[in-house]
Amino acid sequence: MTDVLELAAGLARRGEPFVLASVLWRRRPTSGKQGAKAVIRPDGSVHGWLGGACAEPTVVRESLLALGDGRPRLLLIGPTGEKGAREREGVSVVPMTCASEGALEVYLEPVLPSPSIVVIGRSPAVDTLASLAAALGWRATIVDDGGNAESHPEGASVVTSLDLAAVGVGGSTAVVVATQGHYDERALAAALETPAGYVGLVASKRRGSEVLRLLREEGVAEDALARVEVPAGLDLGQIQHEEIAVAILARLVGLRADGRLGRSLGAVSLPEEATDPVCQMLVDVASARYRAGYGGRMFFFCSAGCERRFAADPEQFAGAPS
User: Fewer CB within 10 Å of terminal CB in the chain, N or C?
Assistant: First the structure.
């Protein structure tokens, strides 16, 4: 379990999403142990041990859904008769139709990257925005191609390169260009090459239109330019630099509350699954060890026992969904 927790801590530090799954209760016979933990990553890989072949595909599928909507889940995985015995509000009951009489309760906790902000430029608005974001627990990075860390507030990291991929810009990142006319076009072009969830330009509408026109002439696509919000943040007219920072952060907090800046991963890719025609359990197609062809179709099984039952009388099961 220590290795699983160390992996989880490392992923969290690097801002990589995952689900921490924990067995809260079990009833024998089951290979899952109370207190057992596993990490499930967005690619469906499992690190750790929760249970056998019957439970794992369900845990993986529900974990990916949890990453997609950002909500934790409490699963009860057990025989059909388990429904009602331990069923209660807030518990998702997943019938286990294989031969096992065991049951598990598994808590799935999605751990998503903290929102982050990258502010490009050097001005009081840049420093105020980074400080306020850091105070909210956001990861704040200032890109200042001519400054040094000592000239900026504590709580924000400072880099001097426009290589935004190096600072880990992702879907939960807001990039704010506040270069004040010095290299707006170059900074904005770099921001638009990233998957940032928000891209804003601190400029008047007139200046912003000119920047977008120049980028358009340089071949930047219209759908990319449409991502830019100008002026960045709430448009409050002529206000002070520090107030501009507050207006931008208020806008970003609103986007996050609406789920558009990092509260979930959104749509996720679920692994291809098939239904075991013998026991009706879901089986991960890619990793299925037991499979058989019959009548021009491929069937997948959760265990050797189901495969043997199918082989003994395929007509009995061939009509089941696969």
Answer: N
Q: If phi over 0 gives left and psi between -120 and 50 gives alpha, with beta otherwise, what is residue 11?
A: alpha
| Alpha-carbon gap, residue 130 to 251, rounded angstroms | 14
Helix (H, G, I), strand (E, B) or coil at 249: helix
224: exposed, middle or buried (C-beta count within 10 Å: 0-12, 13-18, 19+)?
A: middle
Give the pLDDT confidence score for residue 266 in this predicted structure.
Answer: 59
Q: What is the pLDDT of residue 88?
A: 61
Same domain membership, residue 149 and residue 28: no
| Residues 161 and 281 grouped into a single domain | no
| pLDDT of 237 higher than 90 | no
| 126 and 218 part of one domain | yes
Q: Do residue 95 and residue 6 come from a single domain?
A: yes
Total length of the chain? 322
Beta-ladder partners of 292: 299
Look at residue 262 and tell me if it is in a domain: no
Q: Which domain holds residue 295?
A: 273-317
Q: What is the pLDDT of residues 263-281, one digit of tens each?
A: 666 566 777 888 888 887 7
